[in-house]
């Protein structure tokens, strides 16, 4: 979550009043449904439990997917034999060299993927996090290509993608009008073509919280928390009862306009801070949001634009991390560093 002040464009149009909801839906999942849910494992803290304890915690809570932002040998060793599927990211600072030096990409694969491939289930390799638009954006696609070539040369069949924030959009309301900004479109269109050709998804970090926090008078809290009982946004024949689906569908619309009609979206981050002094940052709101997003995506209903297809989603994050900037950034964790719950989220089948 590099770009924390996410102000969902067109936010004033999501409108109408705001009300505090203090109850959570009951969540009941089958084993198959639970597979669409993962949790981000961040390491920006000096009081976090050891990776072996963390992976044991994932397993004990039936969390079957994990996103690791950067290669970490100790974490990868702890993941061996766990059956947890892993999104493995690169450092943003590596993108330039990964894009211009195929041998460096090959070394990256031989160091960070190949030694673990027989015992760690790599789901995706994630080249860069939230660097589009920006000074590193032009390196993303060449880095993806070099990593893809290096993986294939090593006989490793792992899809390569990148993660973007919704700031890549210039238009997001209504969702059907979603379109990439001028500064992002020139990069996103060829990335969409690459992903479509490879049948790989785009990773998108989706935070209704920041849309609400940025405009609490215009964005209904129940709309952000999945607790609205009515259609809040009407988009032609489609009706939206929650902001999460609207944000995902605006990204689908932008991909379609850029030639990525068949590219799936994986929500690589979503969450709600339980503290830190921001608007709406309560333990109860965080509990309600995270339980409801799990129930929503596990229910396999999809979004209004893509009905019937569950949205693979990763909660942010496993722990509160004390070396992040003060405020809400330190308070997205489901667990405290001593592995006690901040609040309960039903993640088990």
Describe the structure.
The chain has 349 residues and is α/β, with parallel strands linked by helices. It has helices at 31-34, 51-60, 73-79, 95-100, 102-112, 140-153, 182-198, 208-214, 221-224, 243-257, 283-298; strands at 37-41, 65-68, 85-89, 121-129, 160-165, 169-171, 179-180, 202-205, 233-235, 238-240, 265-270, 313-315. It has an eight-stranded parallel barrel. Strand 4 (121-129), helix 6 and strand 5 (160-165) form a beta-alpha-beta unit. Residues 3-34 have low confidence and may be disordered.
Separate helix tally:
11
Share of residues in helices: 25-40%
Per DSSP E runs of 2 or more residues, the count of β-strands stands at 12
Q: Which structural class matches the secondary elements?
A: alpha/beta
Low-confidence stretches: 3-34
Compute the average pLDDT: 91
Strand order of the largest sheet: 1-2-3-4-5-8-11-12
Q: Based on Cα principal axes, name the global outline.
A: globular
Radius of gyration: 19 Å
Order of helices and strands: HEHEHEHHEHEEEHEHHEEHEHE
Measured distance between first and last alpha carbons: 27 Å
Strand content: 15-25%
Structural features:
349 residues; disordered N terminus; two-stranded antiparallel sheet; alpha/beta; single chain; 11 helices
In short:
This protein is of the alpha/beta class and 349 residues long. It has helices spanning 31-34, 51-60, 73-79, 95-100, 102-112, 140-153, 182-198, 208-214, 221-224, 243-257, 283-298, and strands at 37-41, 65-68, 85-89, 121-129, 160-165, 169-171, 179-180, 202-205, 233-235, 238-240, 265-270, 313-315.
């Amino acid at each position: 979550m590099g770009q924390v002040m996410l102000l969902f464009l067109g936010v004033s149009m999501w409108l109408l009043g705001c009300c505090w909801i203090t109850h959570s839906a009951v969540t009941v999942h089958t084993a198959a449904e639970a597979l669409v849910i993962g949790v981000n494992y961040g390491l920006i803290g000096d009081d976090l439990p050891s990776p072996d304890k963390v992976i044991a915690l994932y397993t004990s809570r039936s969390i079957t997917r994990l996103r690791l932002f950067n290669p970490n040998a100790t974490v990868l060793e702890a993941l061996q034999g766990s059956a947890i599927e892993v999104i493995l990211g690169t450092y943003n600072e590596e993108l330039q060299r990964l894009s211009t030096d195929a041998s460096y990409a090959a070394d990256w694969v031989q160091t960070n993927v190949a030694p673990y491939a027989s015992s760690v289930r790599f789901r995706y390799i994630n080249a860069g996090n939230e660097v589009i638009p920006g000074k590193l954006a032009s390196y993303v696609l060449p880095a993806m290509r070099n990593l893809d070539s290096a993986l294939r040369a090593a006989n490793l069949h792992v899809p390569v993608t990148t993660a973007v924030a919704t700031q890549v959009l210039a238009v997001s309301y209504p969702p059907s009008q979603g379109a990439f900004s001028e500064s992002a479109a020139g990069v996103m269109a060829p990335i969409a073509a690459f992903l479509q050709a490879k049948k790989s998804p785009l990773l998108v970090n989706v935070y209704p919280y920041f849309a609400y926090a940025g405009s609490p008078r215009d964005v209904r809290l129940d709309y952000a928390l999945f607790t609205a009982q009515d259609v809040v946004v009407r988009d032609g024949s489609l009706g939206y009862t929650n902001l999460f689906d609207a944000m995902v569908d605006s990204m689908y619309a932008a991909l379609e306009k850029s030639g990525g009609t068949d590219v799936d979206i994986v929500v690589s981050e979503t969450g709600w801070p339980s503290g830190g002094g921001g608007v709406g940052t309560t333990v109860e709101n965080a509990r309600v949001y995270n339980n409801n997003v799990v129930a929503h995506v596990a229910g396999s209903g999809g979004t209004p634009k893509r009905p019937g297809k569950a949205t693979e989603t990763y909660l942010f994050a496993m722990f509160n991390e004390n070396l992040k900037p003060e405020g809400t950034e330190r308070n997205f964790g489901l667990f405290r560093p001593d592995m006690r719950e901040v609040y309960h989220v039903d993640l088990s089948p």
